[in-house]
């Protein structure tokens, strides 16, 4: 018999978010869209409460091992919930500037966070799939949230159709794994793989990795990413670039390290291949982009390749490197999108890279912040992005993947061109017209500067707490 009270105690963060989302849904239904600000504020507080509950909660397993609360899950949820809260804050200002105030926006993000939390704590194939679909269904709607925009509707449809394809791959791989291993639990699959690492199990594992690679937009399963990033509303893209990617990377680590640790030699080859393709697609694909959000899509593809390289090492140091990389990447992306949302030109949002020309003339401090963030993402020392890649490449080299790490370093040099182009436009090119803020300039700038200050990567003191925390999460993984 399952002790329901202790199980709910372990899953208290997800239960709190789920119940809170239902309550907020009722508030929105009865109070209407005029309660959007209240619902957004309560959603932010709800997500912060979920992070606190996850951090302070007990460790253990529930629902016959389907749910796992361990250091890896706790660390992942804290990053997921807090970045989702920032996406709500950014979206609140965007909704009022575009006069699309809907209570559904923050509620959908909270529901997506429930699924992402479930992904981080998945202990078997069923809970893994439930978490993926729960967060994906909310993200499909968010991608098309601006219904009057043809590009947003197209983005939502493409994401939904291709997401269904990836779910098919995921389910096919899960069914093969269950057929050969005779169990859904990662622990049982790991025990089976010790003595029976046959081709059937590996075949299912490859399909499973392909389905999961779609969720993190790793090449060659990235086909949805540029179009969705370009068409979806900017605050929704800020969400896509942060919380779901962290959740999916934690899930991949849990599935591969926890369920197929003995088959590391096989799945490491698959991850290396995906990393190499992601390096190439992300670095060279971004060179021809003219839309900022499409450029950030290709940047995310390349950066996910770096994160997967850390996992490919198959060591505790590699897992720690992935966590450090994803955390610093999330922080950089929050700052990047916060600044973009605080800018407009001639009354319209900044979308084209060319629109950043001459930014230093009217917004010099914003130009400085965006320059630092660009240098961080491309990996310029001593920015946080440099240390993120330092940990990943170091873990890969120590695991014997130094050639792949060298190729990743070359790809970083190629990708540096499009970030240096942004810096060159801001500081050396003349603007076509004046850069102005929207009619609510104080709020737009306050939100942008608050998030930018939070994410400012020059403060290297973040590594003082980040390294020991991620090290504890990597070392304690599987010991909950």
Give an overview in words.
Keywords: Cell membrane, Membrane, NAD, Oxidoreductase, Quinone, Translocase, Transmembrane, Transmembrane helix, Transport, Ubiquinone. NDH-1 is composed of 14 different subunits. Subunits NuoA, H, J, K, L, M, N constitute the membrane sector of the complex. InterPro entries: NADH-Q_OxRdtase_suN/2 (IPR010096), ND/Mrp_TM (IPR001750). It contains 21 helices and five strands. It has 480 residues and is mostly helical. The chain has one domain. It has a three-stranded antiparallel sheet, with no helix packed on it. A hairpin with a 2-residue loop joins strand 3 and strand 4. Helix 12 packs antiparallel against helix 15 and helix 15 runs antiparallel to helix 17. The longest helix is centred in the middle third of the chain and has 32 residues. The two termini are 21 Å apart. The relative contact order is 0.10. About 1% of the residues have low confidence.
Largest sheet: 3 strands, antiparallel
Overall pLDDT confidence: 84
Tally of distinct domains: 1
Give start-end ranges of low-pLDDT stretches. 436-441
Give the structural class: mainly alpha
User: What's the assembly state of these chains?
Assistant: single chain
Report strand %.
Answer: under 5%
The strand count comes to 5
End-to-end separation in angstroms reads: 21 Å
- Globally, the shape reads globular
Helix amount: over 70%
Main sheet: strand order: 4-3-5
Helix tally? Answer: 21
Supply Rg: 21 Å
Keywords: Cell membrane, Membrane, NAD, Oxidoreductase, Quinone, Translocase, Transmembrane, Transmembrane helix, Transport, Ubiquinone
EC number: 7.1.1.-
Catalytic activity: a quinone + NADH + 5 H(+)(in) = a quinol + NAD(+) + 4 H(+)(out)
Subcellular location: Cell membrane; Endomembrane system; Membrane
């Amino acid at each position: 018999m399952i002790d329901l009270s202790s199980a709910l105690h372990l899953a208290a963060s997800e239960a709190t978010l789920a119940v809170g989302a239902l309550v907020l849904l009722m508030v929105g239904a009865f109070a209407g869209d005029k309660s959007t600000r209240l619902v957004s504020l309560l959603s932010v507080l709800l997500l912060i409460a979920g992070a606190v509950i996850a951090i302070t909660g007990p460790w253990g397993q529930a629902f016959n091992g389907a749910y796992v609360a361990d250091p890896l899950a706790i660390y992942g949820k804290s990053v997921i919930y807090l970045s989702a809260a920032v996406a709500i804050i950014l979206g609140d200002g965007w909704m009022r500037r575009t006069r699309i105030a809907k209570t559904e926006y923050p509620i959908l993000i909270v529901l997506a966070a429930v699924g992402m939390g479930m992904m981080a704590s998945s202990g078997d194939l069923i809970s893994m799939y439930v978490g993926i679909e729960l967060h994906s269904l909310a993200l499909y709607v968010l991608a098309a949230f601006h219904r009057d925009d043809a590009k947003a509707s197209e983005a939502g449809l493409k994401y939904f159709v291709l997401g269904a394809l990836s779910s098919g791959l995921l389910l096919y791989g899960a069914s093969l794994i269950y057929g050969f291993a005779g169990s859904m639990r990662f622990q049982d699959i790991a025990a089976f793989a010790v003595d029976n690492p046959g081709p059937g199990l590996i075949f299912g594992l490859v399909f499973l990795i392909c389905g999961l690679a779609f969720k993190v937009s790793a090449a060659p399963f990235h086909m949805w990413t540029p179009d969705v990033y370009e068409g979806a509303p900017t605050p929704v893209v800020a969400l896509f670039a942060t919380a779901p990617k962290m959740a999916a990377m934690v899930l991949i680590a849990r599935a591969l390290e926890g369920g197929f640790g003995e088959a590391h030699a096989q799945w490491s080859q698959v991850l290396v291949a995906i990393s190499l393709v992601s390096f190439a697609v992300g670095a060279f694909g971004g060179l021809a982009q003219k839309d900022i959000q499409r450029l950030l899509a290709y940047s995310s593809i390349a950066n996910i390749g770096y994160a997967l390289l850390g996992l490919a090492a198959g060591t505790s140091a590699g897992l720690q490197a992935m966590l450090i990389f994803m955390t610093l990447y999330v922080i950089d992306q929050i700052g990047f999108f916060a600044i973009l949302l605080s800018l407009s030109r001639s009354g319209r949002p900044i979308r084209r890279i060319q629109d950043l020309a001459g930014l230093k003339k009217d917004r010099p401090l914003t130009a400085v912040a965006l320059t630092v963030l660009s240098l961080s993402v491309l990996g310029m020392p001593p920015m946080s992005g440099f240390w993120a890649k330092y940990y990943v490449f170091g873990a890969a080299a120590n695991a014997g993947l130094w050639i792949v790490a060298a190729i990743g370093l070359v790809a970083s040099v190629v990708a540096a061109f499009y970030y240096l182009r942004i810096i060159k436009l801001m500081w050396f090119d003349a603007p076509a017209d004046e850069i102005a803020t929207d009619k609510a300039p104080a709020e737009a700038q306050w939100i942008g500067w608050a998030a930018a200050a939070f994410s400012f990567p020059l403060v290297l003191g973040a590594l003082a707490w980040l390294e020991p925390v991620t090290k504890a999460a990597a070392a304690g993984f599987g010991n909950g």
